[in-house]
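step=encode ok
step=design start
structure_in=
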């Protein structure tokens, strides 16, 4: 991302973001509500056209790329939304193969094997024939992530993927993302989860990127107070993972 901005009539939502993410890196995108995380992800995914600046994959500007071409490079998992689809869960995951099929060709053996593997990785094999309307929010969220894996992209973008997931599935998902060879940019609200699993954290505030680096360098008490409006301290759990403990609301947040 080079000088990336996205604006609406009321002002800038994303402002002059410069950020480079290395191949295979897992980067956590953090910040309070309204800081521009979702809008930034949508610009990077090509879902939204930036007002200014450039998004490049491997040095190539994605302006003018078709949705199919972008989908062959990156998968985007948005925050779960309501849907009235009558598709089965397995059919939703199989949509991840669409960018690689011609309009007239149905799924072949290779496509089906890729979908089977994605379902297995998210623990959804036994639910593949279930109708979408019968699924819980967490099951739908896992299905969307399985669909992204079925795309076999080089880069995965995720907007609050742990929403609707119970504690076990939150940790299973983050284990999966941290262990993949793919490049991952994931927006998260849980700061301790982000600190534990991400190679690097990117902190946004009021549309701007205000810090980027290792979790312990980004999650300082001063930044937690100024950006999130909380009095908090960082520590380590019994396994040496960075933790964030909130003591209360700061009296004078920025």
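sequence_out=
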């Amino acid at each position: 991302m080079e000088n990336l901005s996205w604006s609406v009539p009321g002002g800038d939502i994303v402002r002059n973001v410069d950020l480079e993410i290395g191949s295979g890196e897992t980067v956590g995108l953090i910040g309070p509500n309204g800081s521009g995380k979702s809008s930034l992800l949508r610009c990077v995914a090509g879902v939204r056209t930036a007002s200014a600046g450039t998004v490049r994959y491997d040095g190539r500007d994605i302006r003018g790329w078709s949705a199919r071409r972008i989908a062959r490079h990156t998968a985007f998992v948005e925050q779960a939304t309501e849907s009235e689809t009558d598709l089965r869960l397995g059919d939703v995951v199989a949509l991840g193969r669409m960018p690689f099929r011609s309009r007239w060709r149905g799924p072949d053996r290779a496509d089906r094997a890729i979908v089977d593997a994605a379902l297995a990785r998210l623990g959804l094999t036994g639910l593949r024939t279930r109708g979408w309307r019968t699924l819980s929010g967490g099951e739908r969220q896992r299905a969307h992530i399985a669909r992204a894996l079925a795309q076999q992209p080089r880069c995965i973008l995720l907007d609050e993927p742990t929403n609707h997931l119970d504690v076990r599935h939150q940790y299973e998902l983050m284990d999966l993302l941290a262990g993949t060879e793919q490049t991952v940019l994931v927006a998260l609200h849980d700061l301790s989860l982000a600190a534990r699993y991400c190679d690097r954290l990117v902190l946004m505030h009021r549309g701007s990127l205000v810090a980027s680096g290792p979790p312990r360098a980004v999650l300082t008490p001063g930044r937690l107070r100024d950006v999130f409006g909380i009095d908090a301290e960082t520590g380590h759990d019994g396994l040496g993972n960075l933790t964030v403990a909130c003591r209360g609301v700061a009296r004078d947040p920025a």
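step=design ok
step=annotate ok -> The two ends are 27 Å apart (CA to CA).
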